[in-house]
């Protein structure tokens, strides 16, 4: 499951954003332009248009995660999206949803795929989910949780593989992500993590083949 947040945001603190003058000062230093692009949502009165309940994957069910478990952003305009991160919940679907709705959990992924292939989206892809325990990977990744346990091969059903592969293919297509193991990775491969998911029973060869096939079909 998503790691507890260890990539806490840089806080503006004493920084003053001078909206009218389009300038920002931190002491005597000027706040860099690229940093301002990541902080648009902190400016008074600025809000990117969003449709309540909208999903990024057709057929997904929207169930909102707690706002404490992700950071509002404007990806890929402020952070490029260049990887998909595969997780396993280490529990049932309902318990994962409950955890991601809990503000004290301090972690969540964008999607959860159930054993029967049903997809629930809990965070928009444009936002940064606290999923991997690594700030850079959070900012540049889309996280997909899978119902089950890393130590149980039976957790990973045909329906789950097929549905998750279509989801990943869609993400890769939207953001021009190569369909390879450098860009579609497991949580265990995130630097600094202590997680082992998706574990030894996740069939990477099968999964990547399904993703490639789904992406080709969509093209």
Automatic annotation (TrEMBL):
Superkingdom in the source lineage: Bacteria
A biological process from GO: peptidoglycan catabolic process
Record carries keyword Hydrolase: yes
SMART domains noted in UniProt: Ami_2
E.C. no: 3.5.1.28
InterPro entries: Amidase/PGRP_sf, Amidase_domain, NAMLAA_amidase_2
Name assigned to this protein: N-acetylmuramoyl-L-alanine amidase
